[in-house]
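Input:
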Amino acid sequence: MQARHLFPEDQIVLREVGLRDGLQLTKQYPTTEQKLEWLNLEYRAGVRHFELGSFLPAARFPQFADLRELIQATSSLEAAFSTALTLNERGVADALETQVDEMIFVVSATESHSIANTRRSQTEAIEMLARIDAQRRAGRADPPVLTAGIAMSFGCSLEGEVNPRDVIKIAERSLKAGADVLAVADTVGFGGPKQVAWMVRELRRAFGDDQSIAMHFHDTRGLAIANCAAALDNGIRVLDGCLGGLGGCPFAPGATGNTVFEDMVFLCKSMGLQTNIDIEDLLAARKIVAASMPDEPLHGAMARAGLPRMLEGV
Amino acid sequence: MQARHLFPEDQIVLREVGLRDGLQLTKQYPTTEQKLEWLNLEYRAGVRHFELGSFLPAARFPQFADLRELIQATSSLEAAFSTALTLNERGVADALETQVDEMIFVVSATESHSIANTRRSQTEAIEMLARIDAQRRAGRADPPVLTAGIAMSFGCSLEGEVNPRDVIKIAERSLKAGADVLAVADTVGFGGPKQVAWMVRELRRAFGDDQSIAMHFHDTRGLAIANCAAALDNGIRVLDGCLGGLGGCPFAPGATGNTVFEDMVFLCKSMGLQTNIDIEDLLAARKIVAASMPDEPLHGAMARAGLPRMLEGV
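Output:
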């Protein structure tokens, strides 16, 4: 699969990452059957891109034990795309046995977080990314897209402020090591729209307008939707979010999680950007999330307010 | 008082409208003592602009019965400014007996809402605004600033979409009738950041960069902070909000209320804009709001997440 097929340039892609990032920290998680219903309801609402889990040992991460089934289910849906985290060679070997369309390998914008999170320096992480690239190409003629997720791009829970130049540098090293796509992440929700606008302009200046760049925001401090608006304004076409804003922040217990998916769709509508996603169908799909994880708080303004008059029935 | 004293051009003004808009729809409201504590705590946090109530008959609007006391208290605080709604000549007469710094008279961007809300056509509302302007000038040599609040500027609960040209038109008529300042309101939370950016540019093109223009957003559909960012990006320097996002929407029961004040302060900080307001002090002030209205849901991401590492203690 090529990045331009996964993320066509002329299309807004809103990717549902709830089945991965949304379940990263939860104590409860849905059954496989509930996950498939969640997937199917969102597919019917018009969502086409799904991050489904992480290739990790099922014993330690039971919430992702059914990842293969979810990938298979997604591959049977027309024009639907699946993504999974692959954090090491073993994960890539597992991924290559599936039809997953995109593998995300995570590097960190800061050395401290790289070591704390993965016990690898940034240089070691880039070396592993290069090995993963070689591994996928050796394994398959048309391997999955390889994406470098850049954690802590807008501030770091360990180092505090992050120099945006460091993000550009690690992005450049990731692309050189073989990544097709960048996923620039505000892992802990420190970023604001001015930083986002600057970062997007610099990334596009450094790597060209045709480079696929996804942005991944957390609403930890209430700026996720403003950050999405800034990203869209500056030409970003791939954004991550979770239905109901699932997914917290390990460094801010009780904080809001990922960008609320359905509010992000409304933002796009309000900006005149076509998503082909139906908000009312999404709101209906929240029920399965609520039912399968009753103790998880769901966030989101659209769920409280409903569609404004001029969009009712649209 | 002149508008340029109330809203200096070189300064970001974040106005707390909780004591007015935040109490507009609530069944509970704080005692006068609790309101004064709320006011003082926010003043200590650095807030200097307060909308305190509405000059309306106390029998029908008991939540605003102590408006005069709040104005008096505010006038005793150094460099603090008070605002109140004055919706008719009687209200203005009452206002002129106080030291209120700003009177807001509300006009509607749509004829339907004007009639439904006030039983006045837009033309009748503009005529009343002109009479109010004459009344304030006859009453005092240095009368309060007169602001035209333009309701439903980004969409109307009755008419649906609102033509931005109609907002510019009613704004122009309001200024001609004697208003010093415009307060452009997304009363029902229909607007998005693209509309806001367009509106601000058109308003400034029509009325000049030195015209004081305040923007008033509701977070009904999750776009308030994105709209604030768009307004600030395009030169707006006066924004309204409520601690804890108080204030609902009469047309969307259960919806989020006004822009969350403390999240708006964080937005400004993230954009490098000086507000002189301390977020941790604001978060502490939420306690008095929560204690005085225990049944009102308080919103806001900062309250859940706390300050990011790089701003701790700043």
